[in-house]
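Q: Is it fine to ask for two folds in a single conversation?
A: Yes, each is treated on its own. Send the first.
Q: Here.
A: Result:
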Amino acid sequence: MKDVFIAGGTGYLGQRLIPKLIERGCGVRALVREPSLEKLPAGCAVIIGDALDNKTYRNKIRPAETFVHLVGVSHPNPSKTELFRKVDLGSVQQAVEAAAHVNIRHFVYVSVAQPAPIMKEYVQVRSECEQIIRGSGIPATILRPWYILGPGHWWPYLILPLYKIWENIPATAETARRLGLVRLPQMVSALTTAVMEPAKEVRIWDVSKIRGF
């Protein structure tokens, strides 16, 4: 049985990942703010706290040995630059500090595909988050999707034919593959696998890897 601590369990990925981990026999401890309690899936241990202040939760991480970080600004766009730095970067700084404090053995983080010609502020913050994780010395799995197709996230289906064209043009093929679309079940499966098969050092799973799950 694996024990897992999840920050961001009430979000788009967290609500789907938690039941999968419980099905696999994992003990899941989920960090949540009190107003969002009803959004947590059943079966996990509830840890009331603030992702931007690890003193509110770090002594409740154990017995988990894997820390899954899914906290981030929803529906990112260029107007949210200040929030990226406050929430995305701030929560990773707090999480890595807490993970090191309790000797977490594996850190799982959802970053973003990079480099990218758009959303530069968002990509920059996620890149800084990756650097913090690397600097901690904690073995980690860093997943780099670009856009996740699923409920409420359907509009990119309209440009799928364009992706097919871009992938077959030498000048755009590499970028089209790096910034390709992944499906929600693929992303959840990749996260589940990351938890069940911990990294021994820092490993990067890009779009092509995630699509394989």
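Q: Second one now.
A: Result:
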Amino acid sequence: MNTSQSTHKRFAIVLSLLSLLGAGLVVGRTPAGAADARDATPHVNAITPEAAGKYLIQSAGCNDCHTPGWMETGGKTPEALWLTGVPVGWRGPWGTTYASNLRRFVQPFTEEQFVHLVRTRNSRPPMPWMSLHAMSDRDLAAIYRYIRSLPLEGDVMPDYVPPELEPKTPFFSMVPQNLPAAVRTQASAKAQAPLDAR
């Protein structure tokens, strides 16, 4: 084979590969216009979904409330205790809520059920549901997988206490102090509105 034929053959191979790339037939490439919906929305990319979930747990502040001693140790609580819940309540006009043991909370749900629940739930403060609603399904699934990868440890946290009852545990008061009366009344009315109206 002479040099001209060899060059022509290499050129033909390169063109064939480029056409395969253009058609999206090379492994790992999705044809234009047929992108996977899971990849179309912003999400964390990591070696595994569990690694992405761990990153999201750390960066989204989940440990701030759901991990004992997290705030007091400046985030130095060992991973063995992460997300095992905190029995100190958050009390406001809605009543008293507790940061649940997420390792136990996720147990009855499949990945799809968990994503649906978190995507549609809008429960009591101080849980930042709006932040979770802003996450992609892929990120919510990664959070689920990370939590499920942790050993089932810790106790179930106390149940919600309605506003008319006094909690029997330590709690943080989430009622702003020194507000003008009109602002205080407006904030209280909004906090006591039915959850489905918010």
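Q: Anything structural to flag on that second result?
A: Two points. The chain has a mean pLDDT of 81. The longest strand covers residues 86-92.
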